[in-house]
Fold:
Amino acid sequence: MLSIKNLHANVAGREILRGVDLEIKAGEVHAIMGPNGSGKSTLAQVLAGRDLYEVTGGEVTFNGPHGPEDLLQLKPEERAREGVFLAFQYPVEIPGVSNLYFLRAAVNSVRKARGLEELDAYDFLQVSDEKMKRLGMDASFRERPVNAGFSGGEKKRNEIFQMAMLEPRLAILDETDSGLDIDALKTVADGVNAMRSPDRAVLAVTHYQRLLNYIVPDFVHVLLNGRIVKSGGKELALELEETGYAGFEGMAETVVSGS
Amino acid sequence: MAKEKKNLMSDVMEQHDLYVSSFRALEREFAARDPQWLLRLRREAIESFARLGFPTVHDEEWRFTNLAPLAKVLFQAAPDETDTWDAKDLEPALPGGAPFGSPEESSDIRLVFVNGFYSERLSAVYGLPQGVEAGNLAGLLKKKDGAAEAHLARYADHRVHPFVAMNTALWRDGAYLRLPKGTALDQPVHIVHVSTAGEVPLVSFPRNLIVAERETQATVVESYLGLGRGVCFSNAVTEIVAGENAVLDHYKLQRENGQSFHIGALRIYADRNASAASCSISLGGALVRNEAAAVLDAEGADCTLNGLYLARGRQHVDNHTTLDHAKPHGSSRELYHGILGEHATAVFNGRIIVRPGAIKTDAVQRNRNLLLSPDAVVDTKPQLEIYNNDVRCTHGATIGQLDPEALFYMQSRGIGAGEARNILIYAFAADIKDRVKPAAVRAWVEDALRASQKEAG
Structure:
């Protein structure tokens, strides 16, 4: 589904991603863990197409509905229409634009790109009602401006709700668990697990192992100083919880000086 | 007249003479028709104009608004051609329909003027509650019952303002609305001023007077709409009296073509416990100046002045507001939003005066501007003159651009960059638009906003 080869990226002239390699197949759930500053969020944002980040090398191939695409050549809205979804770490507030209006515009843009009919107001309400219930969201949420005055938990739930409505092929979760209490975490994880299927993939960027108790990954990768230094199964996450990242620092050094 | 090298001063002098001689030409007509007090008022007003002259950028009140483009045009006083107009002629001026419903679907009261002259045929006045008067000002003068004399020109002072002076001398007609004590009007009153010109640039002087006596309630919607592509200059004055405990909701919609000029003065007098609100929506014109001033002259008065202004190309829109808190326990709120694209320029000047005795005044002023291009410029200035300690006066102004994070967020959900921009721009305008209470008027503004977004591409 997603193939990242030797990806390098800068922000404000500083190199953050120093040659990331990653392969994700449909049906898989991958987790990326790493200390602050390792480039986790940068990777997520670069995949979504945020232009603050300058890609200086490498390639990213995404298997979209029409076959393999050079993801880095696509605009953010094109990536979304191809089926890439990013659940933001810090979802922005958009005063004056209601959740309903925004999401319906998004859903219909994506449907149009897929050759599907647009959802009218009534159908949209039906579909969204059901998904909102599952995520424990109040009906009043629809009229409120996007993320305005939302608590951290509400914002994260809104991200998962949007994901459920947009039905992406690749869901990238950028520290979706940060700042959530156990209940909210469970609800969010349920939402993500409900999306799991043989033709979807999930890439969860996380700082804390706890999320992975609920969204059990197939693969765990350690990102350090802009590179993936180790990959393993879900046990790797537990190992990291115990020993921290210190054990991997040596590996990062070696990798960097060897290039 | 020997023409010397043209410069701003000579343009201004020509204009000056133009309006004074226009008055002389009409004076006989005024003398034949007007009561003595009005004739005297007109003569005083033209003398004020002759004394004050056209403002220049050296006048503090006009520092950021250069009238040279207006001064360059040789306007003629518009003639009365209302006989030649039909309802369908009006339609092109009303984007997406009217701010009022069609006669079949609405009971709204409609007073229609073309280039400052009343058209009975295009107007609709029926279903008025007992005692309510709605019609044209020139018609009221014929009645000779002293109502006009009691209020006309009492609130807009020609001695200090050249364009109020020009209008007071040269006005031909406008709307008159009077609500006697205790009456409430459910349906909005629409005052529609259409301006239009052919090859010859035309100036018109709409003059409106609204008297809402004590404990009355009404909604008034004033529209200034341009028709066709000719160059027009609308110099309008509206005086509103909100009596004790009256509730008055006023809207000014202004949408004229990109070559036209609009200078409008609104003066509101608020009595004890009166609640007067005015919302100004400016959507088009080469040079537009809206002055909205309210004096809270008795305890407990409350005034709201809101506004939305859009400008693109090389348009210039200037909003000058004044809230004069003359007595205690008055409250005022101001919220103006501006959206500027391309090389447009705008001015916001929000003056708040709190007089010595006006304790417990509560005034909040906010001006927010959205610049869509690096060449758009806005000058925003609060002007607070506070002569009392026991008050709350807050003011704030922002000038910003579209939030790139919000744009990216929308794009990351599949919304195209252009659509995302439009959503944010519309949301910024909606903050004011959503405060428009009459549904038909709000819908008209929505259509006009979307049309202007389409034009902008």
User: Anything to note?
Assistant: The two ends of chain B are 47 Å apart (CA to CA). The first helix of chain B runs from residue 8 to 33. Residues 1-6 of chain B have pLDDT under 50 and may be disordered.
